[in-house]
């Protein structure tokens, strides 16, 4: 049985990971995000389909290092053995040329996508070191491999995730902890709506001419990555909608 901690589990890719891993009999799920109501309804939904899955959820803002430390330290004893960390919480805000960008948006992206991932990783790694099948999955992006018009700061944060994924792999090698980056192209989640601050029309237009990936597509990929034998690791995976340029 492996315990999986998923950040940003309240929607999109994170919620899909919980739904997919719940279909297997060998995972226990630790779910966190800021929206408690979403975590509760996800837990209820999973339990209605898979009553025996062990789930513990808690609210967490990954940008707050003190809160991250406190939340992990105060997990019930039976949830202190974490085997898998899925660093998924993240967002994009605004899609403007650098000179027109909103510096509050920049702070939000850097604080969540980069500093949040670092805070959670640093806090959870001591627990992962005790596991015999430890694995960190970092959700990067095609934006961590390329830069597109007006993507500037979001792309910079995902390039940082790309670098941190490589760095973690090197630093954690002596402890046998696997590290994998999953880098998706367009995935239809709340991501686009968050990016355009609730402008549904603009959010939908992003997918024009492309069948986007779903959260489940990414979650199924993660299920596969986690199923590989101990001596096999996928270090870095780019997964794109077939029609995305
Ligand atoms: P969603 O907006 O659907 O989900 C984002 C999740 O992150 C939510 O559960 C949200 O929960 C959580 N989150 C945001 N800020 C914080 C915070 N400060 N503390 C804790 N949790 C937070 O988008 P996706 O599922 O698409 O995004 C998941 C990841 O995938 C992100 O890292 C994103 O960059 C990446 N990605 C997405 C792509 C896409 O096209 N959708 C493409 C490539 C990568 P809550 O608001 O409740 O805190």
TrEMBL record:
InterPro entries: NAD(P)-bd_dom_sf, Sc_DH/Rdtase_CS, SDR_fam. This is SDR family NAD(P)-dependent oxidoreductase. It comes from Sphingobacterium faecale. It comes from the Bacteria. Belongs to the short-chain dehydrogenases/reductases (SDR) family. PROSITE patterns: ADH_SHORT (PS00061), PROKAR_LIPOPROTEIN (PS51257). Keywords: Oxidoreductase. Signal peptide: none annotated. Pfam families: adh_short.
């Amino acid at each position: 049985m492996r315990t999986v901690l998923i950040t940003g589990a309240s929607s999109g890719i994170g919620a899909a990971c919980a739904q997919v891993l719940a279909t297997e009999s060998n995972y226990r799920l630790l779910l966190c995000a800021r929206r408690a109501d979403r975590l509760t309804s996800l837990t209820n939904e999973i339990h209605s389909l898979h009553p025996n899955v062990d789930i513990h959820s808690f609210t967490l803002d990954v940008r707050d290092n003190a809160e991250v430390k406190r939340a992990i330290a105060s997990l019930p004893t039976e949830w202190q053995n974490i085997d898998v960390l899925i660093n998924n919480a993240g967002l994009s805000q605004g899609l403007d040329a650098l000179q027109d960008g909103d510096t509050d948006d920049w702070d939000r992206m850097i604080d969540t996508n980069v500093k949040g991932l670092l805070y959670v990783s640093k806090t959870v790694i001591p627990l992962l070191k005790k596991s015999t099948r430890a694995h960190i999955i970092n959700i990067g992006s095609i934006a961590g491999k390329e830069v597109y018009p007006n993507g500037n700061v979001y792309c910079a944060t995902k390039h940082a995730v790309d670098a941190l994924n490589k760095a973690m792999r090197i630093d954690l090698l002596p402890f046998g902890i696997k590290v994998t980056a999953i880098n998706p192209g367009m995935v239809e989640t709340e991501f686009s709506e968050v990016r355009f601050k609730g402008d549904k029309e603009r959010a939908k237009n992003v997918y024009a001419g492309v069948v986007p990936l779903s959260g489940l597509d990414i979650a199924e990929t993660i299920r596969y990555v986690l199923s590989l034998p101990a001596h096999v690791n996928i270090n870095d995976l780019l997964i794109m909608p077939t029609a995305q340029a």
